[in-house]
Every structure is written in C-alpha cells, then in structure tokens.
Design goal:
With 194 residues, the chain is an alpha+beta fold. It has one domain. The chain is built from 2 helices and 8 strands. The strands form 2 sheets. Strands 1, 2, 3, 4, 5 and 8 form a 6-stranded antiparallel sheet that branches. The chain has a two-stranded antiparallel sheet with strand order 6-7. The chain is elongated, with a radius of gyration of 23 Å. The N and C termini lie far apart (65 Å).
C-alpha cells in the first residue's frame, strides 16, 4: 500500500511569504501614523485644561496669569509635550521622581524622567507666527503653546490655544486650519503628516 504525503510546495510557501511581506509593508507605516495621532490626544486635552484654568483664573483675578503654579495648571506626569505661557521659558523640572514647579515657572517641561530620549526643551517658538504670551489688562488675552517630538523625527509637533478666535494663513510652515475659534487647540505644525 502506497501512502501519499500531502503538503505545500515551495512555490505556495513563497507566495504566502510574499503576501505577508506586502501586507506588512502597507500596515506598519499606517500603524506608526495612527500611534502618533493617538499621542496627540495628550496635547489636545492638556491645552483645553490650560484654557479652562486660565479662564477660571481670569474670573477670579480679572487678569490672565503667565505662571503655571499661580493659575493651577499642572498636567499629569508622563507628558510628551512641553507647555508654554511665555516666549522666555522658566520651566518646572520633570527630570526626577517628583515634579517640582518653581513659583516663577511659566512652562511645563517634557517628562524626561519617563521619556529619557525626549528633548528636554523643544522650544516655545511655534509655526504660523504664534508666540506664547499673556497680555495684561485693560484688554487681557493669552496665547499658550505646546511642542513635542512624538515620532522621533526632526520635525516638532506644535500646538497653540488662545482666548481669542484666530485666523491663520496656511503655508508650508503652517498646517493649522484657517479659522480657529477661541478655546480650540490649533495644530500649527503637524509632525504626524511628515
């Protein structure tokens, strides 16, 4: 009696390997892009919290604050973004096990304790000609910004929020939507699309 051995031929196995390779080549870049977009949810939530803290401080003191400790803004640890209320940053320290905020701190640094490879200070300058600042009364206003490198590329992801509605002119250095309402985070330079 003759026994038949059934199995896959070498050609069939090579076709399966080629199909898996093509699917991986398509799926991996998309996965990385979706992962980076999910990291952007941190900055959106924290900028909204900063906006709320500034508005609450304004209701109580009739002015906006450029000091994070004074207005009570302190995002949870593990932040991938640095947050700025002024162009000249005096940052809190997030390099150790405890975050220490100076009474003169007007920005929150990237948590380099958790993300040791992150840039400690991506910089307060933001695309779209946005500069973080707090304007004193009689016409108080503020612009806050956030910067972070979420995908280890050379481009920095930059965001801003303001108590005023703003209009941007899209350009190669400004990826923001043209019309930005008050209290809505604006993605001034999108690191994910590059």
């Amino acid at each position: 009696m003759k026994s038949l051995h059934k199995g896959f031929t070498l050609i069939e196995l090579m076709i399966v390997v080629a199909i898996i390779g093509i699917l991986a080549a398509i799926a991996i870049p998309n996965f990385i892009k979706f992962q980076a977009r999910s990291k952007q949810s941190e900055v959106k939530a924290n900028l909204k919290a900063l906006f709320t803290a500034e508005k609450a401080f304004m209701q109580e003191k009739d002015r906006y604050s450029s000091l994070v400790g004074e207005m009570g803004f302190s995002p949870e640890r593990n932040n991938r973004y640095a947050y700025y209320l002024n162009g000249t940053a005096t940052q809190d320290s997030r390099t150790g096990t405890l975050a220490t905020t100076s009474v003169t701190a007007n920005s929150i640094s990237v948590d380099t304790f958790k993300y040791s490879t992150a840039a400690a200070d991506p910089g307060a300058a933001v695309a779209c000609s946005v500069t973080p600042a707090v304007v004193a009364p009689p016409t108080p206003s503020f612009v806050a910004s956030a910067s972070g490198n979420i995908d280890a590329a050379a481009t920095i992801d930059q965001w801003s929020i303001s108590d005023l509605s703003r209009t941007f002119t899209p350009s190669s250095s400004c990826s923001s939507d043209p019309n930005n309402p008050s209290g809505e985070p604006s993605n001034n330079q999108n690191d994910v699309n590059f």
